[in-house]
Amino acid sequence: MRDLSKLREEIDEIDSEIARLLRRRFEIVRKISETKVFSCIGIDDRNREMEIFLNYKKYLEDVVSNEFIEKFIDLLLNESKRIQRSFKKNLTVALLGPEGTFSDEACDKFFGNVVKIFCNDFEEIFDMVEGSRANFGIIPIENTRNGLIGIVLDLLIERDVKISGEVVLDINLCLLSMENDLRNVREIYSNSFAISQCKKFIKRYGFSVKEFSSTAEAAKYIKENKIFGVGIIGSKLLSKKYGLNILAENIQDVKNNRTRFIIISKNFIPKPSGMDKTSIAISLEDKPGMLYKVLKSFAIRNINLKRINSRIYNRTGKCIFFIDIDGHIENDNVREAIDEIREISSYFKFLGSYKMYQTDI
Predict the structure, then answer these.
(1) pLDDT on residue 39
(2) Is residue 15 situated within a structural domain?
(3) Per the domain annotation, does 14 fall within a domain?
(4) Which of 55, 119, 337, 352 is the most exposed place for a label (fewest CB within 10 A)?
(5) Considering the entire predicted model, what is its pTM?
């Protein structure tokens, strides 16, 4: 018969190994938390939970009771969920404020419940992320009517940040007011972006216009000051946030109206998902065939070019090409193409690799 103390020593060794493996498991759970944020995956996954239960049951059902396995899995999964919720709860995201902007709506769609830091302009959002005062920033970069937003492209060049994700938001612009009747509205308060998208509606009713820094700022102003006779152009979310009446919906000139938002971070590059996009910015020598060499680098490696846009960068007067391609920087063919293009470019910046949103604009 074996000595009891020896058996206990074996158990102590096993317990130490179990503790070490549990620690490793929960460290991986933290990494999964990051992945789920960027993949818009919820914390609860019943199919995955069942897989884990069946796996433990396969190894343990002839040794311990089914009740023990169920209770152990419940404890294990509940702690994993707590870690994931804690990650999201402490996640800080900088965005254009105040509450009720389309950026606010896009943030809810992409991240869910996180700590929001509302900023006054695009530069402040980049400041917060670059200075590590926010984990992420969310910022509009493109709209179906207005195209790419130049200042955002410039900031991507100038600032030490990466694009870590994207989300596309359907834009339903509404007329909101303290009034109950559209006929009582004489003037429109909103930002230049929303006003430019509703020119036909504004002209039809002959409204005068006053610009604000954001649609939410305009809504907040008329609510706090109890201003009647004024309409706000903004999202439905503003009516809930500030208790305004919706007098008209979908008043934008282009009905199929979408805005693409990018998520920026200091240096976070999500792992490949299988449906990824890589973004770069380059400048080339003013010689024949230089752009052809870039496109050839993609073509010979069977890499799909998603888009290419050019912009004259005011600080240098040089043409910058913003390029999106299919694939992730960790894919061999993408990495090889990027390395080749870096060599032939007079300016090169890797902007990020991230999961593509399922809807483009």
Answers:
(1) 66
(2) no
(3) no
(4) 55
(5) 0.79
